[in-house]
């Protein structure tokens, strides 16, 4: 069986490699010729432990090949980005473009699957597009939606072990997709319809955003109440059925901070809690930046000089090098804009250099700083001792104080 993966990014490439490793002949398609060239050379353009060896194996054996254009296959997978536009409206133009690209290749009996996180109804819209352009295929091909849940950094394990939700436009489509994924997924394959599968992905990430918003709201309340929010959450979680997540400096990444808008854009009146959670998590980053600026002013008034400030962390979550949609990056930028020539030391141990920020070693920055701002709970920061000799703003629970 030959499978064509449209999109060789964080999800498409690992999935294509794992399918190839399990006996599927795979054509990986990407619009970026550099990605295609690197993939055919057995070189990864993404960071994912253990994946490059697997890529070299499947490219070497001929099980996987990359190209900028699709070719006739038996199954087609849309694994392209679904960003949102300025007004938080979902943008499915990449899914539509990938679908149009495979239209001429589709034949009776083929399987077409969307994996990209999409607003509810996208699979139905692509079905309508396919049958409008290829009416002879109506009822003759299988169409389904199957979202992924992998955590970057653990993709190989999760792609083969996580359960998956598979929703077809009809039962035959669901079964056809189950048959394909069953070749390499050890987790349980849960059958449903395509709209439920689309909403399931959005629900998973929106639920997490709401849970994080609850923790962030608690942190604002406790700051005003003079309560240690880390201790409070630890105690509340002693309850057998309470599991409050951790406050942070905001919510970043291109998943949790994005997917809820796919629901609020389509259900604005009904999705109030989901919309408020987004507001709270966005506001938390603004609130942190303000706290830093206030402390800098307070220091200058007390000491008659501008402080040296260490901004600890730029990544969107602990122990990764991904700065996309990072609240920490937003806070550092806002603080730097607001302060004329105070000495701001920027730290990100997971990145060698940055084209905007001059990076300082985390130990040096800590030593030199009058004010230490813990933004991202990277493991190395946990070795830096708490001291009363510095002003320490801990937004991510390094010291739990
Ligand atoms: N965060 C907190 N407090 C917490 C947990 C997370 O502030 O207690 C912040 C993180 O710092 C980060 C953001 O939230 O800025 C998102 O972090 P995350 O741990 O949710 O990581 P993601 O976005 O890489 O992965 C999520 C996962 N979804 C769920 O856990 C429901 C992952 O399984 C999905 O595959 C992924 O989104 C995705 O691609 O949708």
Describe it for me?
The protein is built from 13 helices and twelve strands. The chain is an alpha/beta fold and 401 residues long. The chain folds into two domains: 2-192, NAD(P)-binding Rossmann-like Domain (Rossmann fold, 3-Layer(aba) Sandwich); 244-394, NAD(P)-binding Rossmann-like Domain (Rossmann fold). Helix 1 crosses helix 3, helix 8 packs parallel to helix 11 and helix 11 (272-303) packs parallel to helix 12. Bound molecules: ligand SAJ. Ligand SAJ binds next to helix 8.
Please outline what is shown here.
By secondary structure, this protein is of the alpha/beta class. Helix content is 41%, strand content 13%.
Low-confidence runs: none
Shape: elongated
CATH homologous superfamily (4th level) name of the largest domain: NAD(P)-binding Rossmann-like Domain
CATH fold category name of the largest domain: Rossmann fold
CATH-derived architecture of the largest domain: 3-Layer(aba) Sandwich
Number of domains: 2
């Amino acid at each position: 069986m030959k499978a064509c993966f449209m999109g060789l990014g964080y999800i498409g490439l690992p999935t294509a490699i794992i399918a190839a490793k399990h006996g599927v002949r795979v054509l990986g398609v990407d619009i970026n010729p550099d990605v295609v060239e690197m993939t055919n050379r057995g070189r990864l353009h993404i960071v994912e432990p253990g994946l490059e060896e697997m890529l070299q194996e499947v490219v070497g054996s001929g099980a996987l090949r990359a190209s900028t254009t699709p070719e006739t296959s038996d199954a087609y997978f849309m694994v392209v980005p679904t960003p949102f536009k300025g007004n938080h409206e979902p943008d499915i133009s990449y899914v539509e473009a990938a679908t149009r690209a495979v239209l001429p290749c589709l034949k009776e009996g083929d399987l077409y699957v969307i994996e990209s996180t999409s607003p509810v109804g996208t699979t139905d819209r692509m079905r309508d597009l396919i049958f409008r352009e290829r009416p002879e295929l109506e009822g003759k091909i299988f169409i389904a939606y199957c979202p992924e849940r992998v955590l970057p950094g653990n993709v190989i394990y999760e792609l083969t072990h996580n359960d998956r939700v598979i929703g077809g436009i009809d039962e035959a489509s669901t079964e056809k997709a189950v048959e394909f994924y069953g070749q390499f997924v050890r987790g349980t394959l849960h059958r449903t319809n395509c709209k439920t599968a689309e909403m399931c992905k959005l629900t998973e990430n929106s639920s997490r955003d709401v849970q994080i918003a609850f923790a962030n709201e608690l942190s604002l309340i406790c700051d005003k109440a003079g309560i240690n929010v880390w201790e409070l959450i630890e105690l509340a979680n002693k309850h057998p059925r309470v599991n409050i997540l951790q406050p942070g400096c905001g919510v970043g990444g291109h998943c949790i901070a994005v997917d809820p808008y796919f629901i609020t854009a389509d259900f604005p009146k009904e999705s109030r809690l989901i919309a408020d959670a987004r507001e709270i998590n966005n506001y938390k980053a603004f609130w942190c930046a303000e706290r830093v600026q206030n402390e800098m002013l307070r220091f200058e008034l007390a000491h008659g000089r501008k402080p040296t400030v260490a901004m600890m962390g730029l990544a969107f979550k602990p122990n990764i090098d991904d700065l996309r949609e990072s609240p920490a990056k937003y806070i550092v930028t806002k603080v730097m804009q607001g302060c004329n020539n105070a000495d701001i030391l920027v730290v990100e141990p997971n990145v060698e250099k940055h084209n905007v920020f001059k990076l300082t070693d985390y130990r040096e920055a800590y030593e030199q700083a009058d004010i230490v701002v813990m933004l991202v709970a990277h493991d190395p920061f946990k070795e830096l001792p708490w001291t009363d000799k510095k002003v320490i703003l801990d937004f991510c629970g390094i010291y739990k104080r």
